[in-house]
Design brief:
2 copies of one chain form a homodimer. Chain A is of the alpha/beta class and about 325 residues long. Chain A is built from 9 helices and 13 strands. The two termini of chain A are about 15 Å apart.
């Protein structure tokens, strides 16, 4: 089979990374742009298309392929608050410099791109990436949950992403897990995000250490976060490292986070009965301290008719590749 | 356009009703069988096919159409625990006389039916009925929630029922609304069903009257359920009638039920971003005492990006027609 190429663009608040992706999922080359250096969208679009052109010109040394952006199969962009129906971002919260509507299709056409341009939000792109290049190959029904600053999700039903009537379906991070629970940045209370995002993990740890105090055998736990570290200084990575080192407080925090996420996953199954729920994102890297209580809670809370029919897995894609591969999958 | 006909069968634990349905949604004639009189499935299938044959033979006086079951477009069956992939019910809890697997396609073929036979669970059938004959005509994304002895749901995404990898997706009644909440018949705790089914309404009323006691102006409320009515004697219809008559305790019970259902509906929107959530079933007949607090809670708990984009409506189909029309829609 002849090789085809796409450009995947992972647009983030700080950095934007472009990758030239071969149809077998190999990222041939990358280019980085500093998103925050742009004060409006059109010059940013100019530079994205220029960088894409340079990646195409350099081409794939392994196969000898090279060309222009219009020799690609297309350009896919994973971006916050992106709406695939309109090919645009609308006032993304972390990209306030791009006021109003930032329309990728229109701007890329202006820059001479004639091949397909597809846009979707980052969690949806990650789900597609898993389907095209990762562990969900051939699956008709699965869910991707991304843990990070927020909690995102991409839901695949009958082999297609669920976009719903608004284009913005699949916001499981804002499913209310505990009515009247923790305050969420969305202005409501009790959203899954407040319990299982990076910030949710930190808040849980702080609650745990307030409840439990220093462990009796604190000195035996090199990972233990001492009282000299203030609440404000604790990051989810700190908690993850402490848990990995065996700190009982950090392990208890992840036990609670896993318990909550297990309920949310069991609830998601009652909706679309997926074969698998994939997880990705920084807070999942801790591994067993999160996964064990998560799977235990999932089994306990899963309705009997679904028992043994849905598993929870980590994304099969590499952390530093998933965003670009997800974006690439939008045009694959 | 030439008229076509299907038989819709609403299979219930006590009664099974067959209807001859014209393609414009008119139920031409009906026939009733007493489900509980059958001790095994094959003779029951014999009688269903025989009754269907009689309905076809009598035909449609308005158009003059008549024929045999094999002149139909098909036969659709809405039944508890039915799996469309296997065309069968597996040990439905309220039909214990039909042990093991009751396969409609196989039994109906044995009885000489050669036209398509389609089976689905009752809530999914109701959703399809709404799409083909009711208020969801032309909608790509909507959800049907049925309140009754249990709480069922049918979810439509991209114009198709979501069946998931197991064939049994769409069990929102067993979404855990309150972790570690009320005991559910499924063996878990806190399921939506325990708060908003007929039984959930009764339990809520009992809790309310325990908390609040007799209203100060009880005598002014002809609907008030006096202390002479024991907890065991209260049915959801009793509570509905009391609420309609203005009883503050019953109104408070429905206010709580509406509050809970509003959260569940808002959560469902984060999944598939439907245009509309339809409600049907006995407990919804009370109307405003349920719908007002439900819509209020829905608005309060709906994520901002969905505000104004999803409405809650009663099913547009008549209560005594929805089950047959839903079953008919399976082959429409």
């Amino acid at each position: 089979m002849e090789n085809t190429y796409v450009i995947g663009i992972d647009l983030g608040g700080t950095n934007t990374e472009l990758g030239l992706v071969r149809n077998d999922g190999h990222i041939v080359a990358r280019h980085n742009l500093s998103t925050k250096d742009y004060s409006s969208f059109p010059p940013f679009a100019d530079d994205m298309v220029k960088a894409a052109g340079e990646l195409c010109a350099a081409g794939d040394p392994e196969t000898g392929w090279h060309g222009t952006v219009n020799d690609l199969r297309g350009i896919g962009i994973g971006a916050p608050n992106a709406d695939p129906n309109t090919s645009s971002m609308v006032e993304p919260p972390n990209l306030k410099q791009f006021k109003g509507v930032s329309n990728f299709a229109v701007e890329f056409r202006r820059c001479g791109v004639t091949v397909p341009v597809a846009v979707d939000n980052d969690a949806n792109a990650a789900a597609l990436g898993e389907m095209v290049y990762g562990g969900a190959t051939g699956m008709k029904h699965f869910i991707m949950i991304t843990l990070g600053t927020g909690v995102g999700s991409g839901i695949v039903v009958d082999g297609k992403l669920v976009h719903g009537s608004t284009g913005t379906a699949g916001e499981l991070g804002h499913n209310i897990l505990i009515p009247n629970g923790r305050e969420c940045s969305c202005g409501r209370r009790g959203c899954l995000e407040t319990y299982t995002s990076a910030r949710g993990i930190v808040q849980t740890y702080i609650e745990v250490r307030r409840e439990m105090g220093a462990p009796a055998d604190a000195k035996e736990h090199p990972g233990w976060i001492g009282p000299e570290v203030t609440d404000a200084e604790i990051h989810s990575i700190t908690v993850g490292m402490a848990a990995s080192a065996g700190d009982p407080l950090a392990l208890e925090a992840f036990r609670r986070v896993g318990y909550w996420l297990g309920i949310a996953c069991a609830n998601a199954v009652t909706f679309s009965a997926p074969e698998c729920i994939f997880l990705m994102g920084g807070p999942t890297k801790v591994g067993d301290p999160l996964l064990r209580p998560l799977r235990k809670s999932f089994d306990e809370h899963l309705l009997n008719i679904y028992q043994g029919k849905c598993r929870i897995e980590m994304s099969h894609l590499k952390t530093n590749e998933v965003a670009i591969l997800g974006a690439a999958a939008l045009v694959s």
